């Protein structure tokens, strides 16, 4: 029996370390979009807590922690990252496997905010976008999901097919920031 | 002339640079203008029309005369203001618009012909003989016009864009700006202070005032030091705010490395900032205006404030023997500063009769005016009309002041109109012109240092109140100079000769008068007719003066005459900066399929399709022409098996009890009747009745569908579904999300497609378990995937989908197996021929102007239900049999090349717009049929099957007789797909 | 006074004392045979052709501000006849022919410069679409040449042919296309109309349209009431407001289109170049500035100013296509108000009110249309019949779906054309 | 230009898609005039109007934006879905 070999979206593109900023690809495990049906928001949150120990995230927030995180992913939708989504959730929400749909990278370092300020049209400074905050916005011309995972680290998701452009855009921004010394 | 002990340049750091090929030495902190003036160089440029010799007029970004070109080749930059250009080692600046040299410019003959080159002369001539305009007049005019030149080489330096957010944006770091920043900063506000200059401090660096007993520049340095210590304050120098936009958005340009020869490795030359500010305080200062008198444009004649700036900030006196001419007390400072610095002041000429004694040693002429000047390449002498008669005074520099214009420009960027203030004879910003922005200090018409400091503090406190922050306690505003601003308007000194208003564009008082005579009396007409205000300074130096002259000749007041609109940018912005990040591939994201690398390895030319890249064809060594590859790949599918990556098609996953009903509403045909495990083709209309998109939708479960869209329309369809659901059908309980990126999907097409699949599937399939239009889950090499039996080629075919991580691996596997079966990979060219042979449409046919009726799918519009577009598709004009409708076309007799975009005519008629009956949309050579085929739209088309018409492509020089036929050229019964 | 090189010479030698107003500033009369609301390019051209072609000289043009102050005074000055749908082709073809004789006709140098337009394409599909367009142009009797990549390189060697996001496949070359000096067009028509007796009334804003039993009988203005049996509305950018005075709703949504000009530069771009994938077009004015623009801001607006996202997109398009303009400096940007229609094509039609006519909906293609629009609208106002070149520009095409003129194929959403 | 998405907060205009005036879709049988009004005819005021926008690059919600077309002042933004329920 032939075996199919898996390849990650950013294979050959990352990691990058320029100045004091690093970009690495992360394997978030299974990604499942959870979209509660009409009036099922509460039930979905309860089921999520029962099955995975975290609440359905509030608007623009993420719950859980590394390894098992629920990221607010847009109007009436969250992305469960980590464990396979418990089948029982299907009775409350539309579940869709997105494990292969996104390129996932973590941008970290003292100047991570400065680098992202070159690409992202929202205020990502700690005072306005604290750890656990999540947003759907743009990275240059690409639709993206951005979550602050720590004082100096951000989780960024863009479409898998755009991984090369993401790496290119981040690299140019990192070089420009680094060159300012 | 450099003055010992004066100025803020660092004399321990000499810098070598070149101007016009001649080497000079300046000091760190010098601009090209200050360094040249220190060396006694006055001639720095030539004017636009008359090529008059020119020197600096100002000491800021408004400079209209001293424009130079720096750098060469890929980094050549024209029209650089010498007044803003910081010198650096190796700087090589050249003058512009002068040939053969700056001193001896052949085009200066224009100045002798000035009587014939007045305002708008070109509208009245160059009309005869017809055709000479493009061939003779225009080329000559174009060559004579323009300032500096681009090198023609692709830009080389990198630029970037960035976003910044703040509670308070302070624009300008003079006394008002600094005081505003200090007040807000001390209260803990989130402050961004931006300064256009390389040095913070504004006029404090150019004047000799004291603040709190300190030299102004020292107080500014101290304030900056304090602000640097505040974590809640960000300071940006070399940064010009160039535009104010809606809802607190400002554009600013930071000269990150533009003051160096080249940026460091990886660095950028400039950054284009998008700043979002809750509040803004505009403390942009004021711009001094010249006085119009005969020959007031000679090198050595500049504004009085500029003379003080060169003297006090750069320690460089623009002249050895200087005269000062003005209409306000402010001009007197220039004489005082010069004398204090030991520079000879020949005279102080004040147009006002009764003036307080200026406190100078030089001869003072009150109630006097300068009436003219001499000196070809630089000022030698001025003529003065004084109470006791006419005087000739030898000077090499004249400092003139017609008063100050507040820098109102940014406040006009949202259509705000400035307000005229008679007492200072100037326009000031109209409050509220930019929501959230207040103008303070000199740019609001408050000219004393004390007033500026106070206004900055007061404005900041207002902002703090709004932000809910406590203003800092204690007496904050330091003591400073507080002399009143006295002025009596003087716009133009009467005289016969030419008195310049717009220096660069050579617009004189005569031109404005003539414009008025010719009834260009509206200020907009005058501007457009004379070009006043259209030079690189956008009228910063000339608008108010020209307006005053126009008001005078038309017998109106200045406010009634009105003012032209200031628009962004405040100061010019390089296209490379405004468009940063787009050069090369950065203009739009690149989308790559999982088979991209393998396709490139196989030598496939990759073509762009809706941001994706797809293989055109897969050439083999023996092949010299794409057609050979294409025909071979078509053969794979017709005779064996071909593999093609179709992952770029949009895929949308729909779930929920309302899913079927939503599909019924967005598709013309029904989907609630579709059985689980089956696929159906669907046609989607726009609300105006024209076809939006088509594709297949599979039912994976009772409440679970997967829709496919075309590659090009994927985004549009997703937005459309959201619109239909949220806006039109909110009652439907359905959720959908794009899964385009989740699945790598490959078409496996051809008679041997099932054989290939069964070699890799864990559960073999056959025609009963997996008939035409069946779909379902499969296990393939231990991977869970999906299999759809659909066919774009018309052959027995499937589309197999696996999670994208396995895409590349599966593509290699499928292609290898296909090759073993006598087939292989096929690309877009073959895919297009295959679908064309089957008469399947693409966006070449559904190009936005065709209906279901036009493409022969009228029967697909269900009569049983409403759907998007159904009503409007029934408009009388859209169901007229005379419309251009889809047909097939094949050449008659010996095969002739058919092409897309050709027009269709009946045989033996003249080809006119009236006789053009339609056009072709797609065409190709069909290796299966052995001749060319095409699809096209033809009036009454389907009613004319079998008739012969002409297909004419003037563009490609092709013409052929073609037979009208059914669009399906191959296997019309469709047996092959089912078999 | 007739303008000529000789005249300029004579005046120059005699101190330029002989110049006279280009047009009068008359007081409004109580009544005219016809009034035209709107002193922009189309309105002035209408007045000129009413007088010249139809002998109607007792007419007035009512302008709320200064003549030529609308979109004729702020556009990117492109003149072309490269449409492909019947209904448009013949109209723009006629317009280009009028342009070619305009200087002699008006005795005014509008600097019509037939420097050639090149529409670039970036895929086989776009090539086929441009081939269809080119063939329509040839069939119409106009000029079009298909250029391959090398052909484009010969004309435009400065484009980035190696490393650009949307590779250049070729271009459709329209040699007779070009530019003109926009203000001069307004002034030339104004002077031409004035010399034929037309009253140009500036600072005369129409505040009402008088209608009695179904027929127009005059207008109310800020300079008094004016009687007229025929009234033409030609107020691009304000069409909906003026039409509302006659109780009409139009198939128009107003949008802002930005345009840009750089500082003066020595000649570097000799053609008009358009870059479809980037919605970018550019030419160089005789004064040396690069004049360029892009797509709409896409939200309805009467503010005649735009915002950054569109401006940035335009600059970015320029940088990926022709990075040699990187060191050109943007000097000024502005915005015009566009009458956007549901199919991107204009309306020259009578209304349900007798004697009331309207010329509107030019989207952002109005400049090149000025001569033919004035010509056809004058014909309609004078004869009551549609001119043959503009017979397709009717209101009812949207309701009936008959004769829609959707060159872009983007459908009935106003801002997508 | 910035719009305040009820879900995501104040965002730059570049994240949004503009469609046009907020109008109710006529019934299928409403007649040619009603459909002509819906698709083509507009009041097109130089002032305040209700528009449909989508926060396309954000949460994806369709919004009703009350906006002044002369000044670009935004008077209010709400979710279409909330309007439907209200």
UniProtKB/TrEMBL annotation, chain A:
Which Gene3D superfamilies does its entry note? Heterotetrameric sarcosine oxidase (3.30.70.1520), Probable tRNA modification gtpase trme, domain 1 (3.30.1360.120)
Q: Which SUPFAM superfamilies match?
A: Folate-binding domain
Can you name this protein?
Answer: Uncharacterized protein
Q: Which organism is it from?
A: Roseobacter cerasinus
UniProtKB/TrEMBL annotation, chain B:
Domain spans labelled Aminomethyltransferase C-terminal = 885-971
Q: Which UniProt keywords apply?
A: Oxidoreductase
Q: Which GO terms describe its molecular function?
A: sarcosine oxidase activity
* GO terms for biological process, alphabetical: tetrahydrofolate metabolic process
In terms of Pfam families, this protein maps to: FAD_oxidored, Fer2_4, GCV_T, GCV_T_C, SO_alpha_A3
Q: Where is the SoxA A3 domain?
A: 496-581
GCVT N-terminal domain location: 600-865
Q: Does the keyword Oxidoreductase apply?
A: yes
Membrane-crossing segments per the record: none
On the tree of life, the source organism's domain of life is Bacteria
- Which InterPro entries does the entry mention? 2Fe-2S-bd_N (IPR042204), FAD/NAD-bd_sf (IPR036188), GcvT/YgfZ/DmdA (IPR028896), GcvT/YgfZ_C (IPR029043), GcvT_C (IPR013977), GCVT_N (IPR006222), Sarcosine_oxidase_asu (IPR006277), SoxA_A3 (IPR041117)
NCBIfam families on file: soxA
Give the protein family: Belongs to the GcvT family.
Query: Which named protein is this?
Result: Sarcosine oxidase subunit alpha
User: Which species?
Assistant: Roseobacter cerasinus
TrEMBL record, chain C:
Domain of life, per UniProt, equals Bacteria
Question: What are the EC numbers?
Answer: 1.5.3.24
Q: List localization entries.
A: Cytoplasm
GO BP term, example: tetrahydrofolate metabolic process
**Catalytic reactions on record:** sarcosine + (6S)-5,6,7,8-tetrahydrofolate + O2 = (6R)-5,10-methylene-5,6,7,8-tetrahydrofolate + glycine + H2O2; sarcosine + O2 + H2O = formaldehyde + glycine + H2O2
GO molecular function terms attached to this record: nucleotide binding; sarcosine oxidase activity
A GO CC annotation given for this chain: cytoplasm
Domain Rhodanese, residue spans? 35-78
Q: Per UniProt, which keywords does this protein have?
A: Cytoplasm, FAD, Flavoprotein, FMN, Nucleotide-binding, Oxidoreductase
Question: Which cofactors are named for this entry?
Answer: FAD; FMN
Q: Name one Pfam family in it.
A: DAO
Write down the PANTHER family for this protein, in alphabetical order: FAD-DEPENDENT OXIDOREDUCTASE DOMAIN-CONTAINING PROTEIN 1, SARCOSINE DEHYDROGENASE-RELATED
Say which family it is in: Belongs to the SoxB family.
Name by which UniProt lists this protein: Sarcosine oxidase subunit beta
Origin species, per record, is: Roseobacter cerasinus
From TrEMBL, chain D:
Task: Provide the protein name.
Answer: Sarcosine oxidase subunit delta
Q: Which Pfam families does the UniProt record give?
A: SoxD
Gene Ontology MF annotations? sarcosine oxidase activity
Superkingdom, taxonomy of origin: Bacteria
Q: Name one GO biological process term.
A: tetrahydrofolate metabolic process
Matching InterPro entries: SoxD (IPR006279), SoxD_sf (IPR038561)
């Amino acid at each position: 029996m032939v075996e199919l070999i898996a390849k990650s979206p950013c294979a050959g593109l990352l990691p990058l370390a320029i100045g004091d900023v690093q970009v690495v690809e992360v394997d978030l495990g299974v990604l499942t979009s959870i979209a509660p049906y009409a009036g099922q928001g509460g039930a979905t949150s309860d089921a999520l807590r029962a099955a995975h120990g975290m609440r359905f995230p509030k608007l623009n927030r993420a719950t859980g922690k590394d390894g098992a995180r629920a990221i607010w992913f847009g109007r009436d939708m969250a992305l469960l990252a980590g464990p396979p989504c418990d089948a029982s959730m299907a009775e409350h929400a539309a579940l869709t496997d997105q494990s292969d749909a996104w390129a996932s990278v973590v941008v970290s370092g003292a100047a991570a905010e400065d680098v992202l300020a070159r690409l992202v049209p929202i205020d990502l400074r700690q005072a306005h976008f604290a750890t656990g905050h999540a947003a759907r916005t743009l990275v240059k011309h690409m639709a993206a999901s951005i979550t602050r995972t720590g004082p100096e680290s951000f989780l960024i998701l863009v479409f898998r097919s755009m991984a090369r452009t993401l790496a290119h855009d981040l690299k140019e921004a990192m070089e420009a920031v680094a060159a300012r010394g | 002339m450099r003055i010992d002990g004066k100025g803020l340049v660092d004399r321990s750091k000499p810098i070598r640079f070149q101007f016009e090929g001649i080497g000079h030495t300046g000091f760190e902190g010098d601009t090209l203008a200050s360094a040249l003036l220190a060396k006694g160089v006055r001639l720095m440029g030539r004017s636009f029309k008359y090529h008059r010799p020119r020197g600096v007029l100002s000491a800021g970004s408004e400079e209209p005369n001293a424009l130079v070109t720096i750098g060469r080749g890929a980094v050549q930059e024209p029209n650089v203001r010498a007044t803003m250009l910081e010198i650096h080692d190796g700087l090589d600046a050249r003058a512009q618009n002068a040939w053969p040299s700056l001193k001896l410019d052949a085009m200066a003959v224009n100045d002798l012909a000035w009587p014939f080159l007045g305002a708008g002369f070109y509208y009245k001539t160059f009309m005869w003989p017809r055709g000479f305009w493009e061939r003779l007049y225009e080329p000559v005019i174009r060559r004579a016009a323009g300032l500096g030149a681009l090198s023609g080489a692709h830009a080389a330096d990198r630029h970037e864009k960035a976003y910044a957010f703040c509670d308070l944006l302070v624009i300008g770091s003079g006394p008002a700006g600094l005081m505003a920043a200090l007040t807000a900063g001390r209260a803990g506000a989130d402050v961004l202070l931006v300064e256009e200059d390389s040095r913070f401090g504004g006029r404090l660096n150019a004047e000799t005032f004291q603040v709190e007993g300190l030299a102004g520049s020292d107080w500014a340095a101290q304030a900056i030091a304090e602000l640097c210590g505040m974590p809640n304050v960000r300071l940006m120098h070399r940064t010009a705010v160039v535009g104010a936009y809606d809802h607190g958005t400002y554009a600013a340009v930071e000269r990150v490395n533009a003051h160096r020869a080249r940026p460091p490795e990886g660095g950028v030359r400039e950054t284009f900032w998008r700043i979002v500010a809750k509040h803004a305080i505009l403390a942009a200062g004021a711009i001094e205006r010249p006085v119009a008198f005969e020959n007031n444009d000679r090198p050595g004649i500049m504004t009085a404030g500029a003379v003080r700036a060169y003297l006090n900030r750069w320690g460089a006196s623009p002249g050895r023997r200087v005269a000062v001419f003005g209409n306000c007390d402010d001009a007197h400072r220039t004489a005082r500063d010069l004398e204090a610095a030991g520079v000879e002041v020949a005279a102080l000429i004040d147009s006002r009769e009764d003036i307080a004694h200026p406190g100078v040693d030089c001869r003072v002429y009150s109630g006097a005016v300068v009436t003219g000047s001499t000196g070809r390449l630089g000022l030698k002498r001025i003529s003065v009309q004084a109470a006791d008669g006419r005087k000739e005074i030898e000077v090499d520099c004249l400092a003139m002041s017609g008063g100050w214009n507040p820098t109102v420009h940014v406040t006009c960027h949202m259509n705000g109109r400035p307000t005229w203030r008679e007492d200072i004879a100037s326009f000031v910003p109209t409050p509220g012109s930019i929501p959230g922005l207040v103008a303070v200090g000199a740019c609001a018409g408050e000219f004393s240092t004390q007033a500026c400091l106070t206004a900055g503090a007061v404005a900041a406190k207002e902002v703090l109140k709004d932000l809910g922050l406590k203003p800092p306690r204690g007496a904050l505003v330091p003591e400073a100079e507080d002399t009143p601003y006295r002025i009596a308007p003087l716009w133009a000194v009467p005289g016969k000769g030419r008195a310049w208003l717009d220096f660069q564009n050579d617009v004189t008082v005569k031109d404005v008068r003539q414009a008025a005579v010719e009834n260009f009396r509206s200020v907009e007409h005058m501007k457009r007719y004379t070009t006043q205000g259209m030079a690189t300074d956008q009228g910063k130096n000339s608008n108010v003066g020209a307006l005053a002259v126009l008001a005078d000749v038309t017998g109106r007041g200045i406010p009634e005459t009105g003012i032209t609109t200031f628009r962004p940018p405040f100061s010019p912005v390089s296209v490379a900066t405004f468009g940063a990040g787009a050069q090369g591939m950065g203009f739009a994201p690149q989308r790559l399929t999982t088979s991209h690398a393998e396709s490139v390895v196989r030598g496939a030319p990759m073509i762009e399709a809706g941001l994706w890249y797809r293989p055109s064809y897969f050439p083999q060594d023996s092949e010299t022409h794409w057609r050979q590859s294409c025909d071979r790949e078509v053969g794979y599918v017709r005779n064996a098996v071909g593999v093609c990556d179709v992952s770029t098609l949009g895929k949308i996953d729909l779930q929920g009890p309302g899913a079927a009903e939503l599909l019924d509403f967005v598709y013309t045909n029904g989907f609630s009747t579709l059985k689980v495990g089956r696929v159906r083709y669907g046609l989607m209309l726009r609300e105006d009745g024209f076809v939006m998109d088509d594709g297949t939708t599979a039912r994976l479960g009772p409440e679970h569908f997967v829709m496919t869209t075309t590659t090009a329309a994927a985004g549009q369809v997703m937005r459309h579904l959201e619109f239909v659901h949220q806006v039109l059908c909110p009652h439907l309980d359905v959720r959908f999300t794009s899964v385009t990126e989740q699945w790598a999907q490959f078409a496996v097409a051809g008679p041997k497609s099932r054989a290939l699949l069964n070699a890799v599937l864990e559960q073999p399939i056959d025609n009963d378990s997996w008939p035409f239009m069946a779909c379902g889950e499969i296990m393939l090499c231990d991977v869970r995937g999906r299999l759809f039996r659909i066919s774009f080629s018309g052959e027995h075919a499937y589309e197999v989908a696996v999670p994208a991580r396995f895409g590349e691996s599966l593509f290699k596997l499928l292609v290898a197996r296909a090759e073993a079966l006598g087939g292989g990979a096929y690309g877009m060219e073959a895919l297009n021929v295959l679908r064309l042979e089957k008469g399947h449409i693409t966006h070449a046919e559904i190009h936005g102007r065709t209906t279901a009726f036009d493409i022969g799918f009228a029967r697909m519009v269900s009569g049983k239900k409403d759907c998007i577009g159904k009503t409007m598709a029934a408009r009388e004009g859209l169901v007229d049999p005379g419309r251009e409708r889809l047909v097939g076309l094949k050449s008659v007799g010996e095969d002739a090349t058919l092409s897309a975009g050709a027009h269709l005519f009946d045989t033996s008629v003249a080809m006119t717009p009236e006789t053009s009956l339609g056009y072709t949309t797609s065409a190709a050579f069909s290796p299966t049929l052995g001749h060319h085929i095409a699809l096209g739209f033809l009036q009454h088309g389907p009613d004319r099957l079998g008739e012969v018409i002409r297909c004419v492509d003037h563009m490609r020089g092709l013409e052929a007789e073609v037979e009208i036929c059914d669009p399906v050229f191959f296997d019309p019964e469709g047996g092959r797909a089912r078999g | 006074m007739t303008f000529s090189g000789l005249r300029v010479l004579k005046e120059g030698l005699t101190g330029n004392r002989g110049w006279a107003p280009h047009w009068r500033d008359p007081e409004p009369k109580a009544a005219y045979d016809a009034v035209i609301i709107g002193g922009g390019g189309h309105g002035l051209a209408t007045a000129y052709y009413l007088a010249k072609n139809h002998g109607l000289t007792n007419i007035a043009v009512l302008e709320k501000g200064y003549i030529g102050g609308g979109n004729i005074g702020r556009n990117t000055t492109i003149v072309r006849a490269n449409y492909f749908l019947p209904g448009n082709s013949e109209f723009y073809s006629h317009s280009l022919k009028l342009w070619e004789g305009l200087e002699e006709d008006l005795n005014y140098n509008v600097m019509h410069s037939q420097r050639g337009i090149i529409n670039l394409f970036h895929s086989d599909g776009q090539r086929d679409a441009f081939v269809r367009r080119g063939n329509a142009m040839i069939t119409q009797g106009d000029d079009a040449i298909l250029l391959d990549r090398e052909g484009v390189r010969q004309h435009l060697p400065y484009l980035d042919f190696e490393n650009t996001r949307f590779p250049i496949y070729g271009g459709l070359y329209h040699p007779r296309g070009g530019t003109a000096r926009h203000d001069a067009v307004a002034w030339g028509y104004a002077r031409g109309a004035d010399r034929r007796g037309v009253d140009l009334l500036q600072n005369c804003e129409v505040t009402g349209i008088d209608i009695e039993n179904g027929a127009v009988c005059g207008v109310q203005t800020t300079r008094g009431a004016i009687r007229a049996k025929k009234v033409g509305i030609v107020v691009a950018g304000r069409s909906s407001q003026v039409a509302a005075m006659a109780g009409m709703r139009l198939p128009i949504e107003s949008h802002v289109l930005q345009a840009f000009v750089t500082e003066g530069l020595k000649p570097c771009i000799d053609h008009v170049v358009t870059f479809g994938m980037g919605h970018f077009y550019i030419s160089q004015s005789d004064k040396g500035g690069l004049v360029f623009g892009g797509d709409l801001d896409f939200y309805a607006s009467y503010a005649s100013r735009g915002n950054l996202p569109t401006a940035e997109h335009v600059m970015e398009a320029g940088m990926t296509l022709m990075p040699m303009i990187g060191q050109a400096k943007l000097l000024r940007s502005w915005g015009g108000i566009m009458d956007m229609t549901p199919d991107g094509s204009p309306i020259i039609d009578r209304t349900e009110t007798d004697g009331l006519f309207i010329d509107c909906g030019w989207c952002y293609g109005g400049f090149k249309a000025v001569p033919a629009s004035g010509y056809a609208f004058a014909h309609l106002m004078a004869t009551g019949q549609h001119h043959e070149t503009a017979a397709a520009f009717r209101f009812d095409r949207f309701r009936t779906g008959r004769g829609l003129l959707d060159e872009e194929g983007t459908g009935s959403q106003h801002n997508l054309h | 230009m910035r719009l305040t998405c009820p879900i995501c907060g104040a965002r730059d205009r570049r994240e949004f898609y503009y469609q046009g005036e907020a109008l109710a879709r006529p019934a299928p049988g409403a007649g040619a005039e009603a459909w002509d009004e819906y698709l083509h005819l507009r009041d097109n005021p130089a002032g305040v109007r209700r528009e449909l926008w989508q926060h396309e690059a954000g949460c994806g919600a369709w919004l009703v934006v009350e906006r002044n077309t002369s000044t670009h002042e935004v008077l209010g933004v709400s979710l279409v879905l909330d309007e439907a329920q209200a």
